[in-house]
Every structure is written in structure tokens, then in C-alpha cells.
Write a structure and sequence with these properties.
- The protein has 309 residues and is α/β, with parallel strands linked by helices.
- 60% of the residues lie in helices and 7% in strands.
- It is built from 14 helices and 5 strands.
- Strands 2-1-3-4-5 form a 5-stranded parallel β-sheet, sandwiched between helices.
- α12 links the parallel β3 and β4.
- α11 packs parallel to α12.
- The protein is globular.
Length: 309
């Protein structure tokens, strides 16, 4: 690679590079949208940060069977001005990993695993998923979504399957703080209600893949009718994002036969939903506080009755 090309690729992207802790999360999030050669570079730095930190750009290109240009492009896509900055982040990540003990278990669950191992492996995967989601969540986008929700006339949330359960969870929480919200898992009903939305309303699509047609269609209709739209997805460049004013990216643990994507995606989606809910409650505390108290009091007698039993 010529010096001129290296200088072009090493120019900053306009924002600060991610901290080392966020590197692994960003690799997991962006890898599916990368070219195969860039994926090889990303997988190498994520799996062996210490080893890759010791390599020159040429060395990493040779290790991954790619080119120097591909290595630099991958570094820039991950948020670093150039490969030198990525190497520094890798060294920092390696130091963090060495200072804390790496888990002695793997994340793959076998058919004959003892139940104690299953608990430990799932717990580790859930913790990693939550940490990755928190590290990669764009707080500017999150704040904008919170602002829209806090002032919305009504909020419609779309999701199917496991994402539909998360949609229901969000609407129930919004209702408890006094806001009008509806969850739609029926695709026909979702579209017919999206037609009624207008500026001042909010529509939220929850889809891990970002390509679920039954979720994209109502979001598109809501977008075209002027509602503020939000996408909660594991794929930041997926089809659903073209109709989203704000995109909140989730992360998932590695999939296996016994642990499908729906399990880990649900965990990260619920974290994003909780962040939205708490943010809205902060903005609307004068009304949210009394609403929460009222809902608690309305159900208190049921809890007391069960306790006497």
C-alpha cells in the first residue's frame, strides 16, 4: 500500500474511536454486514487481541489472507482513524482481559452438559450480551427516542415471535407510567393502525434481523404518515433502518443449536426497552410517579389477598 493511500484511510471519521471495552461489541454487531475478507480481519482481532496488537498492518493482512487496504478499511469501519489506533485499542483490550480472569467455560451448550454447566454458560452469555449492548448503544439516538416517547400522543410497537414479547413488555411499562401505548403482533392490524399515526406519534419496530417484513411494513406506513419511528435491531444496516428516524442497535451472544438467536436477542432488546422506559420516566416524572403509585395501589389488595392464603 502506498503512503498516500494509507494517509487517506487513516483520516478520522469525525468522532472519537470506541474505547477498548466496546471493540468486541462493535465487531459482533458489524461483522454480518462486512465483506468476507473484512470479516476475517474482524474475527481475528476479536478472538486474539493480544496477538493482533503485536502485528503490523502487513502482518495482520498476511495472517488473515487479506490486503493492507482491507485491514485499514476494517479498522475504519470499527470506528478507528487508522490501523495504529486499532492496535492501541487491541493492546488495551488484551490488558483488560489479562487483568481479569477469563471464564473457564465455553459458550456452547452440549446435549449432555450437566444442568449446573448450562446455568453457568447461559449466565455468562447473558452477561456478555448485556455488556456488548450497553457498550455499543448510541446514547444520542437513545436520548432522541426517549424525547419522542415522552412527548408522544400515542406509541405503537411492532414485533413478532420473541420480539413480540419484548414489544408487549415495553407497552405494558409505558402504560404503567400513564402513557398510551399499543403492541401489535398481528401484521394486518399493525398496518391498519399505522395508517392512523401522524406527527407527534411514535412507532417502534423490534426485529433482531432487521428484515422481518411483518415489522418493516407497519413501520414504513408510520414513517410515511409522519410519525417518529424507532428501530431496535441487531443489524444497523438492515432494511428496517431505512424507515427509522432513530436506530438502537442490540448485540447477541454467539448462537448454537440449543441456543437460537431469539434467546440472546431478547436479552439485549429488553435492556434497550428498560433504558427507554427509565429515560421516559425521568422526563415525565411529575406524571409518571403518581401513575406508578396508582397502578401499584390498584393491585396491592390482590397481593395482600394471596399472601393471606
Amino acid at each position: 500500500m502506498t503512503r498516500e493511500v494509507k494517509e487517506v484511510f487513516s483520516q478520522g471519521s469525525g468522532g472519537p474511536p470506541p474505547v477498548p471495552a466496546a471493540l468486541a461489541a462493535k465487531v459482533r454487531t458489524l461483522a454480518p454486514s462486512m465483506t468476507r475478507s473484512m470479516q476475517r480481519v474482524a474475527e481475528a482481532v476479536a478472538s486474539d487481541p493480544a496477538g493482533c496488537a503485536a502485528l503490523t498492518v502487513t502482518g495482520l493482512a498476511e495472517l488473515t489472507g487479506t490486503s493492507e487496504a482491507t485491514v485499514v478499511r476494517t479498522a475504519r469501519l470499527l470506528g478507528y482513524p487508522g490501523y495504529r489506533d486499532l492496535r492501541l485499542a487491541l493492546a488495551g483490550l488484551a490488558a483488560q482481559q489479562q487483568s481479569g480472569r477469563a471464564p473457564a467455560i465455553t459458550t456452547d451448550i452440549a446435549v449432555d452438559d450437566p444442568i449446573g454447566d448450562v446455568v453457568a454458560k447461559l449466565a455468562y452469555d447473558e452477561q456478555q450480551t448485556l455488556a456488548d449492548t450497553a457498550a455499543g448503544l448510541d446514547t444520542v439516538q437513545l436520548g432522541a427516542a426517549v424525547t419522542a416517547l415522552a412527548g408522544a400522543r400515542r406509541t405503537d410497537v411492532y414485533g413478532v415471535g420473541a420480539s413480540g414479547l419484548v414489544a408487549q413488555d415495553l407497552t405494558q411499562k409505558l402504560l404503567r407510567i400513564g402513557l398510551i401505548a399499543h403492541a401489535h403482533s398481528d401484521p394486518h392490524l399493525a398496518v391498519t393502525t399505522a395508517v392512523q399515526l401522524r406527527p407527534g406519534d411514535v412507532a417502534i419496530a423490534i426485529t433482531h434481523s432487521g428484515s422481518t417484513g411483518d415489522v418493516i411494513e407497519p413501520l414504513r406506513v408510520a414513517f410515511e404518515h409522519g410519525a417518529t419511528t424507532v428501530a431496535i435491531t441487531g443489524r444497523p444496516d438492515a432494511a428496517v433502518t431505512q424507515y427509522a428516524d432513530h436506530v438502537l442497535t442490540t448485540s447477541t451472544a454467539r448462537e448454537s443449536e440449543l441456543r437460537p438467536a431469539a434467546m440472546s436477542s431478547r436479552t439485549s432488546q429488553l435492556l434497550v426497552v428498560d433504558c427507554l422506559l427509565v429515560g421516559v420516566a425521568q422526563r415525565t416524572y411529575e406524571t409518571a410517579g403518581p401513575a406508578l403509585s396508582a397502578s401499584y395501589e390498584a393491585l396491592a389488595h390482590r397481593h395482600r389477598h394471596r399472601h393471606r392464603r
